[in-house]
Amino acid sequence: MENLLSKEEMEAIINGDHSNPFSVLGIHKNKGSKDVFIRAYQPNSRSMELLDNNGSSLGMMTKLDDRGFFQINLGPRENFAYRFRIENDRGDFYEKEDSYRFPSILGDIDLYLLAEGNHLDMYQKLGAHVIELNEVRGVSFAVWAPNAKRVSVVGNFNNWDGRTTVMRNHPSCGIWDIFIPGIGQGEIYKYEVKTRENYILVKSDPVAFYSEKRPHTASIVYDINNYHWNDEGWMNYREEANSFDKPMSIYEVHLGSWRRKGENGSEYLTYREFADHLVPYVSNMGFTHVEFLPLSEHPLDSSWGYQVTGMFAPTSRFGTPDDFRYMIDKFHQAGIGVIMDWVPAHFPKDGHGLVEFDGTHLYEHADPRKGEHTDWGTKIYNYGRTEVCNFLCASALYWLKEYHIDGLRVDAVASMLYLDYSRKSGEWLPNIYGGNENLEAISFLRKMNELVYGHNKGAITCAEESTAWPMVSRPTSMGGLGFGYKWNMGWMNDTLKYISKDPIHRKYHHGMLTFGLLYAFNENFILPISHDEVVHGKCSMISKMPGDEWQRFANLRSYYGFMFTHPGKKLLFMGCEFGQDWEWNSESSLRWHLLDYPMYKGMQNCVRDLNLMYKGNAPLYEVDFDYRGFEWIEHSNAADSVISYIRKGHNPADYLIVICNFTPVVRQNYRIGVNELCGYQEIFNSDDVNYWGSGVKNEGVKQAEAISWNDKPHSLQVTLPPLSTIVLKPIR
């Protein structure tokens, strides 16, 4: 290599057009000799002095150009450690290592796997990592931008000047990387991308581990390897705890509005404060799992986290990544699983994010008929691009591995599966077979689920899928999508419509109550009363109920009793457990003061006892996804709006009887058929006075009689409280 720098190369470096600045800058040998020269580009500098590793001067560098090029020619020598002593244009002196003397942190295997789209640990190479390279501490940066003309790391360390710290390009995979010595954790940075059309874009890191708190958007260097976990007991038990025949009662939480502090509730709690308050609350209420609305970094509070810009960064609204780990750790120490909403369905158009990242449609489709959700004003990932698929799969695995998340709930799966989702004719493109199925998204979802279950012992996935797409929660080997669970949106819609009817009209809508059992075992269902049901004018759960105040609370308690005894795992959104009167407002705290009133406290007591009964009785959870766990006693008594059924566990002798009376009438001596001639005892009654009910009970042990009824060999007479669910247990 010649030690003379041509004017063309000089201009290319200055303009950010040079395809390989590492061939120009740094330490090099003269072509055909052992002589060494060092060249640097440092704008706004008066002078540069070369120092060896001990700080001794090796001479002043020659200024090649007034715009900041310096060079020094040395005699024969091998590669060595050096740094610069720089005088800036204000006359200040400082010392600096040369980024261009350090090798790439990407090995041949990394480059091959990244190009192939199979680097499942890509986040360990891409993003910003605090490392020691050649005995020097600093940060390695790497980013995928295959169509960029130039990519630089910018931050306070270089005065946000993209002409310096230009990264090394690896054309085989489109990755750019550089090691910047002398900086560390907490450094704020972005990538400056020069496009092929010579536009300058300033982007946050797609693989950032931490970000500035909105409205600021820079990424922050954060070492994710320093947290010491204390949840070994849970992680060893998790596979058993999350198996299909174990109870799963999920408390869905939006962290920003569960509870707030400060004057008028203007301040968020931190992750560590949630660990002190939310963990014991969830534990005391008897829930087995907590599910968070997305906690990945997002710019807009009102998106609730569903428009994600940081697929690898916990939101900084509530603290640091290690603070987030601490909260999860505390949940696990309390024996509570943690599920997080994860959003691969779309991403926002914010300029600092993924949209047109390198000046091209890199993460998204170029054609808006495939690449844009007009309903949400967001972009759609190009699932058919191997690097994008790898980016998303690596994100899923990252949360499970690095944050010990126990499960991912994938939002808006239907929008991924259908090319014509919420589109009119002419607004979508069919697949290669002429159909409306998104073949690339299907392939991605299957791969993601295979990886999650293959690499994370005991982890689960769940789909929010609102159509009748077959085998969502069936293995990919059977042709399914591979999810562990699916939200039962049909059951939720039908039963909420039913329970919102005035009891006098319910007999005309009885099928809404029973229809769900026709398909209850087609999927591994979770019964969801989620945030979507108590917002956007849909009213709170208690406001959906008909009747006077007492009837509204009785209706809701009976409905929860039906839900907790119905086949399927359970999910309840925060505030629903005590019957919050207003619909959910993401910008304010739940109305905790309502617990000072007996009706709300009674509702909370009811849900707590439902959880305890649910967890304490195997028939309510052991056989959730097979018809053998359920048996109707009476499903056709529409006139009285009464249903009754049996829930069974693995042991045929282990069962419970459930009776729901959805009218405000006390039904004395109500006869139901039973299979066994024995005693039966009431173990739950939603009309209990402790729940603000009227206190109509079945005292003591009720004896069955040898009278056939409901096609059963024996029968039993019980009292049905008004608007109630009761549960009976056989006593032998």
Describe the structure.
By secondary structure, the chain is of the alpha+beta class. The protein has 15 helices and 39 strands. An 8-stranded parallel beta barrel has the order 17-20-23-27-28-29-30-31. Strands 32-33-34-39-36-37 form a 6-stranded antiparallel beta sheet. It is elongated, with a radius of gyration of 31 Å.
Estimated structural class: alpha+beta
- Report the β-strand fraction as a percent range: 25-35%
What is the typical, i.e. mean, pLDDT?
94
**How many helical stretches?**
15
Instruction: Please give the oligomerization state of what you see.
Output: single chain
Coarse morphology? elongated
Segments where pLDDT lies below 50 for 5+ residues?
Answer: none
Provide the spatial order of strands within the biggest beta sheet: 17-20-23-27-28-29-30-31
Helix content: 10-25%
What is the total tally of β strands? 39
User: Main β-sheet, in a few words?
Assistant: 8 strands, parallel, barrel
Termini separation comes to 93 Å
The radius of gyration over CA amounts to: 31 Å
List keywords for this structure.
732 residues; 39 strands; elongated; alpha+beta; 27% strand; 22% helix
SSE blueprint and pairings:
Layout: H1 7-15, E1 26-29, E2 35-41, E3 45-52, E4 57-60, E5 62-65, E6 69-76, E7 82-88, E8 93-97, H2 108-116, E9 127-133, E10 136-144, E11 150-155, E12 168-170, E13 175-181, E14 188-194, E15 200-203, E16 219-220, H3 232-241, E17 249-253, H4 255-258, E18 260-261, E19 267-268, H5 271-285, E20 289-292, E21 296-297, E22 310-314, H6 321-333, E23 337-342, E24 347-348, H7 368-371, E25 372-373, E26 378-379, H8 386-402, E27 407-410, H9 413-417, H10 439-455, E28 460-463, E29 485-487, H11 489-499, H12 510-514, E30 525-529, H13 541-544, H14 549-565, E31 569-573, H15 598-616, E32 630-637, E33 642-648, E34 655-661, E35 667-674, E36 679-685, E37 701-703, E38 714-720, E39 724-731
Parallel strand pairs: 17-20, 17-31, 20-23, 23-27, 27-28, 28-29, 29-30, 30-31
Antiparallel strand pairs: 1-2, 2-6, 3-4, 3-7, 5-6, 7-8, 9-10, 10-13, 11-14, 12-13, 14-15, 14-16, 18-19, 21-22, 24-26, 25-26, 32-33, 33-34, 34-39, 35-38, 36-37, 36-39
Helix pairs in contact: 5-6, 8-10, 14-15
